[in-house]
Amino acid sequence: MADRHSLESSELQSAQAELPPDPVPLSVTTVDAHCHLDIFTEGGPAGAGVRAALDRAKAVGIDRVVQVGCDLPSSRYSVECAIAFPGEVVAAIALHPNDAPRLPDLEGALAEIEKLAEHPRVRAIGETGLDHFRTPPEKRDVQEYSFRRHIALAKKLGKTLMIHDREAHDDVLRVLEEEGAPERVVFHCYSGDAAMAQVCAARGYVLSFAGTLTFKNAPQLREALAVIPADQFLVETDAPFLTPVPYRGKPNAPYLIPHTVRLMAEIRGVSEEEIARVTSATAERLFGPF
Ligand SMILES: [Zn+2]
Ligand SMILES: [Zn+2]
User: Fold this and answer.
1) What integer best gives the mean pLDDT of the chain?
2) How close is the Cα of 1 to the center of ligand 2, in Å?
3) What distance in angstroms lies between residue 2's CA and the mean position of ligand 2's atoms?
4) Separation of CA 29 from chain center
5) Does the keyword Metal-binding apply (predicted)?
6) Which ligand ends up closest to the CA of 129?
7) Which of 121, 31, 41, 114 is nearest to 85 (CA)?
8) Secondary structure of 166-201 in the HEC alphabet?
9) Which of 68, 123, 150, 201 could form a disulfide with 92 if both were Cys (CB 3.0 to 4.6 A apart)?
10) CA of 68 to the centre of ligand 1 (A)
11) 189 alpha carbon to ligand 2 midpoint, in Å?
12) pLDDT tens readout for residues 164-196
């Protein structure tokens, strides 16, 4: 997530009224590899709001989503949502790097994440990682400790590690090396440049691109996507944040993925069907079968 604390629910509600229109559907289906349904839908993890969001996405070719938890309530929600929508939703759960250092009982929370993570509908441990943008220097020890614990959990359970890295590229790569990375690692909302992308690719990591790929001021992301192997990238929304151009600033949702897929096709010089096919296959390799 970008920063869910910055959007008040009243703001979100009024923003919902101005949701962007549906894009032209993709003819090959793919996956939203990272979203927060709990933040922008009503009615709980098995409710009508989630159903409506999934239906709207499915109508344009996004027929599966990874629902991501950031704290205990949203992690519990994610597991329930994945149970309620088999074939359509799988869960990733964790204590977000900005939340972990603020918790009064980090050990207790980690213990509950470890228990929840055993559920077969949980396919990834994340989002975890490091965020030097929102967490001040004096809290970074705790943040890194929490990241190490999540890495250990992903390895212990054989699940994919889903990383949040904000302005902390070198330290994230260092900690992964020190701990020994799990077999499957994905950088959600990839924010590095082409040189870092090559390092990640060489280590077997997968890079997941959000709507930021379409932002005018992010040429380094487009350069990164251009240099990595076809089976090492995913597409995501991080909804309700990071809405792709031309709807930047409006609320995001999984049905808006086609905008990002179409730009990916342009950057890679392949068809949009090919982008959908490879991102779907990579998502199933990391998270699936749904
Ligand atoms: Zn997120
Ligand atoms: Zn994030």
Assistant:
1) 95
2) 4
3) 5
4) 18
5) yes
6) 2
7) 121
8) ECCHHHHHHHHHHHCCCCCEEEECCCCCHHHHHHHH
9) 68
10) 7
11) 7
12) 999 999 999 999 999 999 999 999 999 999 999
Counting beta carbons within 10 angstroms of the beta carbon of residue 179, is it exposed (0 to 12), middle (13 to 18) or buried (19 or more)? middle
Kindly give the distance from the C-alpha atom of residue 164 to the centroid of ligand 2, in angstroms, as a whole number. Answer: 4
CA of 92 to the centre of ligand 2 (A): 12
- pTM value is 0.94
| Distance (Å) from CA 213 to ligand 1 centroid | 15
Distance 163 CA to ligand 1 centre (A): 9
Structure tokens at 15: 């923003």
- pLDDT, tens digit, for every residue of 252-265? 999 999 999 999 99
Q: How far is the CA of 28 from the centre of ligand 1 (A)?
A: 25
Spatial CA neighbour of 167 closest among 192, 144, 148, 138: 192
- How many CB atoms are closer than 10 A to CB 205? 21
Asked if 28 contacts 64 with a C-beta cutoff of 8 angstroms, the reply is: no
Q: How far apart are the first and last CA of the chain?
A: 22
CB atoms closer than 10 angstroms to residue 182: 21
State the CATH architecture for 26-287. Alpha-Beta Barrel (3.20)
Q: How far is CA 228 from CA 32, 115, 196, 225, 276, in A?
A: 20, 35, 10, 6, 16
Q: Where in the chain are the domains?
A: 26-287
